[in-house]
Specification:
The structure holds two protein chains of two kinds. By secondary structure, chain A is mainly alpha-helical. Helices cover 71% and strands 6% of the residues of chain A. By secondary structure, chain B is mostly helical. Chain B has one domain (15-300): ABC transporter involved in vitamin B12 uptake, BtuC. Chain B starts with a helix and ends in a 20-residue tail after the last helix. Classes of the chains: A mainly alpha, B mainly alpha.
Chain lengths: 361, 320
């Protein structure tokens, strides 16, 4: 008896929808086992998490607060992942975006007309993020240096730099850490609870990316590069140029996420700017199968796990990292299941005799 | 002059201590990659190995049991990676990333849950038995090379592991088969080597060594548990595999380079330099990028640096 994988002619739509949902359920089951073993009631815990994240207006807006950076970084990595460029540096790109926006708000705001401060701060955040992804992009495009490691290493560099500013160089007098509060001209408005204007940016950008991926030649080029580099070369697609362009866009989106965090939420640069959003973004993007619209919703789900985690920490004295475990667990069944979207599985008892056939059409 | 040698010996001692966990992880990843499987899950596996090792030792006071648990945890997580990439043919990069993300969450959860109730269940700040330094009488007094003989037992084990790992890879039948699978799975398959089995075996073996490296961090180097105890060592180890050109013996050089950077950082900080600590702490990460650039540039000049030809590619027998 052996198992035979048969390639489908086209990907199974039903499997594309079912696999992420089943994966989330599997992750919840695994989390329940872990909670039960460590002496906590999984049902009570999950109920408290759901209630914390969605059970009140405050909870919903707090979930949106965390969903905004996840949406933007999720979109960011999805642009790069589309061409199989493994940008795992969203964390550092977000951090540097926040740093640059804070720099504008703190040090350039005096000499400028009030209305220019906020757009300029956002713009500098976007540029800083793009620069930080541009370095690994250039190294990859023109020297073929592996991008997973360079993007990741630059996360540590960006975070150390931000910490240096927070604790030493930009520290406000009288504080142990963190800069002074920004002048009001640099504040990004909050639209629901503490959820800021970044939400609008995220939704608009998701729609824009959806359009670009689906209807433009550039979207098509990225897809071909991701699927088959040789074919892309035959079609005359400039791979190096596309790597750089896509990565500048990717970093810009993460930089915007960082800028929105500091300008719209903390309104000063302080410790805890990056709490792993750039890494969770990988889960968001992959679980959404790189679909920009789906990313918005998956980002809310992942944000709910974080807010739910914080809630059970406060109310039940359970570690907030339960949320992180559930997030981290999702991709594993998801990856195991992806095979069903591309292959049919048949179990063959004797050569040539089909026993069962699993179909997901 | 005597003072200079004393200083050099001291720096070398610290270098080796700091490099030990890196060498274990690098040798582990070399074996995994030699079979054609890229495992980016090292960071998550080291973290989980470190926390489970420390938790075990904290509760049982048995150091070797802690090492054993970390090794098993490493093997278990590597098995998940092997299952996803070999059996389910998932993308190796994404699978490895998911192992790291999972390990990060799990290690953090366990660190807050496996400690004593008096500390709110947290292991942070707890102390337990540790692998202490064993000075070999006589040899440890030698200038410079004495550094090799002022280490803990897990570092001493490396003196056996490295020659053994190198010999196995290059001089045994099994090592030849392993290299064949990573180089050309089709040929290996035709020659009667079980490709999936080989890939499982060496991914899991690699995981064992990575877990072992994690145990060294929490039981000897730090010792104890802090959130993010690895500080990117799992990722640096993956870069060191390239630096070592997939040769276990050369992994030592990479670990010495990075251990050396750590040692110099400590010395500079202790000497009260005016360079901000953050900039010094960036050194290992910037060096990693530099190493990658230089190695890739070298390869672009058509020098083969030894990457297994089938690295990162799923092998499908049915595909024609």
């Amino acid at each position: 008896m052996r198992i035979v994988f048969e390639k489908r002619e086209s990907v199974s739509r039903r499997a594309m929808v079912l696999v992420p949902i089943v994966s989330f359920v599997v992750s919840l089951i695994f989390g329940a086992i872990l909670l039960a073993v460590s002496g906590a009631n999984p049902f009570v815990t999950y109920a408290a998490m759901a209630k914390g994240a969605f059970g009140s207006w405050y909870g919903i807006t707090e979930t949106l607060v965390k969903a905004i950076p996840l949406m933007l970084t999720g979109l960011a990595v999805s642009v790069a992942f589309r061409m199989r460029f493994w940008n795992i540096g969203a964390e550092g790109q977000l951090t540097l975006g926040g740093v640059a926006a804070a720099g504008v708000a703190l040090y350039w705001s005096q000499g400028l007309p009030g209305w220019t401060v906020l757009p300029l701060a956002l713009l500098m955040g976007i540029i800083a993020g793009a620069v930080w992804s541009g370095v690994p992009a250039l190294l990859k495009a023109y020297l073929k240096v592996d991008e997973t490691l360079t993007t990741l290493m630059l996360n540590y560099v960006a975070i150390l730099y931000a910490e240096h500013l927070i604790y030493v160089a930009w520290r406000a007098p009288g504080y142990n850490s963190g800069t002074a509060k920004f002048p009001e001209s640099a504040w990004l408005p909050q639209i629901a609870g503490r959820a800021n204007f970044g939400l609008i940016f995220a939704v608009l950008l998701a729609l824009l990316l959806w359009f670009v991926f689906k209807y433009t030649r550039w979207g098509f080029e990225l897809k071909i590069i991701g699927e088959n580099q040789t074919a892309a070369r035959y079609l005359g697609i400039d791979i190096a140029r596309n790597i750089v362009l896509a990565l500048l866009l990717s970093g810009a989106l993460s930089g915007l996420a960082g800028a929105c965090e500091v300008l719209g939420l903390s309104r000063r640069l302080q410790q805890g700017l990056s709490v792993g959003y750039g890494y969770t973004a990988i889960i968001v993007a992959w679980m959404s199968q790189l679909n920009p619209i789906v990313i918005l919703f998956v980002a809310i789900l992942m944000a709910a796990l974080l807010v739910g985690g914080d809630q059970i920490q406060m109310k039940m004295r359970l570690p907030a990292s339960v949320g992180l475990v559930l997030q981290g667990m999702i991709l594993i069944p998801m990856l195991a299941g992806t095979i069903f979207t591309e292959y049919r599985i048949r179990i063959v008892r004797h050569e040539g005799t089909m026993l069962t056939e699993k179909k997901h059409d | 002059m005597i003072e200079f040698f004393a200083l050099l010996t001291q720096i070398l001692t610290t270098t080796l201590r700091a490099g030990t966990s890196l060498i274990y992880a690098t040798v582990g990843e070399i074996y995994t990659e030699r079979s054609g499987i890229l495992n980016l899950g090292l960071e998550g596996m080291m973290l989980t190995g470190a926390v489970t090792a420390f938790a075990t030792v904290y509760h049982t006071k048995n150091l070797w049991l802690g090492v054993l648990v970390a090794t098993l945890v490493g093997m278990l997580m590597a098995t998940i990676h092997a299952f996803l990439t070999v059996t389910m043919r998932a993308n190796q990069v994404v699978s490895g990333l998911s192992i790291t993300l999972f390990g990060r969450g799990l290690a953090s959860f366990l660190g807050e849950r496996l400690g004593p109730a008096s500390n709110g269940g947290s292991l942070v700040g707890m102390t337990g038995p540790r692998f202490s330094t064993i000075e070999i009488p006589g040899l440890s007094q030698l200038p410079v090379v004495g550094a090799l003989f002022k280490q803990d037992i897990l570092t001493y084990l490396l003196y056996i592991l490295i020659p053994l790992a190198t010999f196995y890879l290059y001089k045994t039948r099994n090592g030849l088969n392993l290299r064949a699978v990573g180089e050309s799975p089709q040929t290996a398959d035709a020659a009667g080597i079980d490709v999936p089995k080989t890939r499982y075996l060496y991914t899991i073996l690699g995981g064992a060594l990575v877990g072992f490296g994690g145990a060294h961090l929490s039981l000897a180097y730090v010792p104890g548990w802090t959130e993010n105890i690895t500080g990117g060592r799992g990722w640096i180890a993956i870069a060191l595999v390239i630096f070592a050109m997939w040769n276990p013996a050369r992994a030592v050089l990479g670990a010495i380079l990075f251990g050396g950077i750590n040692a110099v950082q400590f010395r500079l900080q202790a000497s009260g330099t005016t360079i901000p600590a953050a900039y010094l702490n960036m050194l290992p990460y910037l060096t990693t990028i530099l190493v990658l650039v230089v190695m890739t540039w070298w390869e672009n000049l058509s020098h083969r640096i030894g990457a297994p030809a089938a690295l990162g590619k799923a092998y499908m027998r049915e595909e024609k």
